[in-house]
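Two quick folds needed for the group meeting slides. Do the first one here.
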Amino acid sequence: MNERIKELRKALKLSQDEFGRKLGVTRGAITNIELNKTEPKPLFAKHICEVFDVSEDWLLTAQGDMFLHLDKDEEFDRICAEIELSDDDFIKNLLRSYWALEENEKAVIRKLMNGLVENM
């Protein structure tokens, strides 16, 4: 499981510090897990799965896909929870500002964003 935790962290493109913060532990705790100095407790493994939408089967046994397949609403809920827990004041202010706009102003922003997405 220790190797899969490291694999997950790298797949998420997170440093040990960032990964640990999202889980409520220190970088040192993540380092010890990745170096096989500490075996994660079952409750911690479950927490990893909940925070990152990881398949518990994959994490515990290496069977199946790494990530759960979420529908659009579940994925949106996960993103909102991640934003809420983050220190990213820019995205929080951006969302608050967008939500405060009048509908016609929101339509302009949506049109702009749709154009950007199409050009990516």
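Then this one, please, same format:
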Amino acid sequence: MAKKLSAKAFDASFDAGESIVDQLDLTTANRPGLTPQRINVDFPAWEVEALDREADRLGIARQSLIKVWIAERLDAMQSERLRNN
């Protein structure tokens, strides 16, 4: 890591479009709200089989398929809410 900058100098470097990556400790960086949280969901066997077929067709894992489908649905719901307000 390079020498430490004051907050004012750090901000000035950033505002000037200079690289500030060398000034950051990325070993502790995280993205708020993206920490995985485990949940358990029970599905009937026919749904698991259908999920597996679709996941195989797309060449992805079942868990990835479920995550993508849930994220798509949540995004659609948010978009719908924004359109209605």
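Slide caption for protein two: Helices lie at 7-15, 45-58, 62-84.
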